[in-house]
Design brief:
The chain is of the alpha+beta class. Helices cover 50% and strands 17% of the residues.
Length: 336
């Protein structure tokens, strides 16, 4: 637990590093921030913060930079002190978004664009159906002994279909048995609910190669049907950040974004949390591909109307601004 004084020193160092993306020295903190202590005290506090793992020194003669632990302490202090509370700017943003969009997809696209403009980071807005769309009916129709048609009817009335081929012969009776099994798992549930209810008994039932093949095809069908239901903008904004001056550093992030199924796992915390905003910093992210970035995400809506709004950026992101922007975007989408 940091003392108030060391929390202020850490906060000043992080604000300076966010602003300039350069290691910060004690002289800079003393001259630019009103910390109310002597330069010697600031130097001692920096040494203590470094020993505790909140900051690090890239080179012997360089200043210090924050670590993931330092950012975490900074963000926790922001949230605890209510320094990211809603203000007039946030309310104006919500009103503008809701006034200017007439369709959900248009609102999602505009929300993503505004988030990118306000944060200079990558924004991701995921439509509700991609997360919580429930299945009303699942049918497996035998076309030949080596081919079948999967037909999925969603609660919204949308009908999806996909052909599946088998290496060996599969009888209509075998298909009917698999249909009964998968219907018990899928009917009335979303992918998120199926994942939450997955247990050892379900795993044993799914060990059949035929069941696993059809299950994989169903998941692909559901994922592909939601093409365009996630809105992502701001890759060019990330490229302007010093951390991503080389496109090679963006490759891990791009790989995550290519697959909606993988992308959803990135936001598991936000989907399962009651908090209006979840912040994951660097190595706190479950995906190793995102170890060099921070993710700020929140769930909007409830039940079938639930979706995700998020910002992905460098760990050096302006957390106060990003958290407020995500919260405002979440409110704009809440009742759609």
């Amino acid at each position: 637990m940091l003392s108030d004084r060391r929390q202020r020193v850490l906060g000043a160092l992080i604000e300076e590093y966010i602003s300039r993306a350069m290691p910060v020295g004690s002289r800079t903190l003393t001259e630019r921030y009103h910390l109310g202590v002597s330069p010697a005290t600031v130097r001692n506090d920096l040494s203590a913060l470094e020993d505790a793992g909140y900051i690090a020194q890239p080179h012997t003669s360089a200043g210090r930079i924050p670590t993931d632990a330092g950012y975490r302490a900074f963000v926790d202090d922001l949230l605890a002190s209510d320094m990211v509370a809603e203000d007039v700017f946030d309310r104006d943003m919500v009103a503008e978004l809701r006034r200017s969009a007439t369709e959900l997809d248009e609102l999602l696209e505009r929300t993503s664009a505004v988030l990118t403009r306000l944060t200079d980071c990558l924004s991701v807005v995921i439509a509700p159906s991609l997360i919580t769309g429930q299945i009303r009916q699942l049918s497996l129709i035998s076309l030949t002994n080596h081919q079948a048609l999967i037909v999925i009817v969603m609660e919204s009335g949308r009908v999806l279909n996909r052909q599946v081929s088998f290496d060996g012969e599969v009888s209509p009776e075998e298909l009917a048995s698999v249909q009964n099994l998968l219907s018990r798992v899928f009917i009335g549930n979303s992918l998120a609910e199926i994942k939450a209810a997955y247990d050892k008994k379900t795993d044993e039932a799914f060990r059949s190669p035929l069941v696993r093949l059809i299950l994989e095809e169903i998941i692909v069908c559901l994922s592909e049907s939601n093409g365009g239901r996630s809105h992502r903008l701001g890759m060019s904004s990330l490229l302007q950040q010093p951390e991503f001056s080389s496109s090679r550093s963006l490759l891990p992030i791009m790989q995550v974004l290519e697959d909606d199924t993988v992308l959803l796992h990135v936001f598991d915390d936000a989907m399962e949390s009651d908090a209006d905003c979840v912040v994951r910093i660097g190595t706190e992210n479950a995906s190793e591909s995102l170890a060099g970035v921070s993710v700020v995400a929140g769930q909007y809506g409830r039940g079938e109307g639930a979706g995700i709004v998020a910002v992905i950026g460098p760990t050096r992101m302006n957390y106060s601004r990003v958290i407020r922007a995500v919260r405002a975007a979440r409110r704009a989408l809440q009742d759609e």
